[in-house]
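Field reference: sequence -> structure
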Amino acid sequence: MGSKRVLAVVHTVTYGKRLLDVLSLLEGDFRLQVFFTAPPHDFGDDVPAFLAKLGSVVLPWDQAIAMTFDLALTAGPRGVQYVDAPLITLPHGANYLKRVTEGAEAGVAGLRRQDLLPGGRLPAAVAVPHHADLRELVRNCPEALPLAHVIGDPAHDRIAASLPLRAAYRRALGLVEGQRLVVAVSTWGAHSSFGRFDALLPRLIGELPTARYRTALLVHPNVWAGHGAFQVRSWLARCAHLGIGIVPPEADWRSVLIAADWIIGDHGSVTLYGTLTGAPILLAAPPAQEINPSSPAATLAAHAPTLSPTHPLVDQLDYVAREHRHEEYAAVRARITSEPGRFNRNMRRLMYELLGMGQPAHEPATVPLPDPLPLTAQASGRGEVSA
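Structure field:
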């Protein structure tokens, strides 16, 4: 059993959850054995617990880089030049949304030379979600262009396949007839909406009548890892006591996003994926200096209404619900991937080509997302590992 060895390099929980979608394409193949390893990373403290819940075979980093594998997968660059295997690099979120404007690391995050050629080493393949990303590669790292494969986006395809289950997700969350769900979303970093939560949370608590509205918070796993789960839960304790769902970093956020009636977000990937759901989006003022101007995040920032600090929140929600037109975000959605619904087929073909093996003789299915936990369970912090 397991004559070929595949290594998943998991730097952070975010990267690990992206790789789980990819690794699901290898399920049922007794010719393969999958191993996991966790390189040192600033936001990697939660990774050991994440991998332990998977029940996976986890190799210490020093052992992993001393071994040879038939294929390796990574959604981040740090240290992977030391992995002895044909390497596929993938983005860990929606497209390439952020840019670094200062210092030696300036450029579009995920497309810089240090991201794609860590340690100067060429990977076996660079998986990108959209044909337009090839033009970005020419500008940012032309050496990687011959290695690029337009694969698509797994989160996009899982969300799209799961949209018909919206009513089931809402029931699983515990929403009752007439209740509306507001989902507040934050990426990480100094310019994220989490940095404004001290102003937003009192409005979510004080201005939304609990009989009509429920609220869930989706906070980037890097916030949890950077500050520690104890501190994040301490900051959000009052919200949890009032029944606001605080989705833990290891849980699957995508079904919660699908269930939303409104999304209050920022310039991160989760807000961008929210354009797939049909929910109206309100933006906390996004920082222009941190947005890649060629990305769909820039297009969204130019069109989505911005949260006002002076008008009642209920009035703003009602306004965007009346004015929202799903087709207005068509260009944003189209820029997430140019291979909608085809990630599994494209990615599995690439992996098996590099493994030198024939693919399984069946179509790789895009499995709908599992039901989320009830909002009361989210508020108490009970989560589960999911892609």
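Note: The domain at 156-337+372-380 is CATH 3.40.50.2000 (Rossmann fold).
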